[in-house]
Amino acid sequence: MKRLIILLIIIGFGSGLAGCTSSGYNAQKGAAIGGGLGAIAGQLIGNNTAGTLIGTSVGTFVGFIAGNAVDQYYTNQCLQQLEQKQTKQRAYASVDGQGDSPPGEWVQTKGQWIDGNWVPSYKKWVPVNP
Question: What is the phi/psi pair of residue 81, to 5°?
């Protein structure tokens, strides 16, 4: 019973450490934390060197897999945000004619009265269907 309580305390402490890791190199951090916790758990369970080594191996493997999953998640999020920025930037035509513009042209409108309000002249984009 004493071993179980110590094991639960160590796992809780390790979970707290894992929550403090910052972004970047999460696979390496996960492997280090998992290896340490696995070694302690293996020693508590097996009371011998073999148990410690097995716990270290399993903990390192599981920690690396979990950290790598976190790294991949953050990488995918960054790529999606970058792609959205690029898509938004391409959605607008440039006034000076530079850049990637959809087919069409800028047309100068005349000033006019709309619903009792004067709207001065302005440029607007008129798309052309290819």
Answer: -65, -40
Which helix (H) or strand (E) segment holds residue 126: the answer is strand 123-127
State the Cα–Cα distance between residues 67 and 35, nearest whole angstrom: 12
Question: CB count, 10 Å around CB of 81?
Answer: 10
Q: Is the dihedral of CA 25, 30, 33, 38 positive or negative?
A: negative
Q: Which residue ranges in the chain fall short of pLDDT 70? A: 1-24, 86-101, 130
Mean confidence (pLDDT) of the chain: 76
For residues 82, 88, 93, 99, the Cα torsion angle rounded to the nearest 10 degrees is 0
Q: Where are the alpha helices (DSSP H) in the chain?
A: 2-19, 26-46, 49-90
Residue type, 116: G
Distance of CA 119 to the CA centre of its chain: 46
pLDDT score recorded for residue 19:
45
Residue 24 gets which letter from DSSP? S
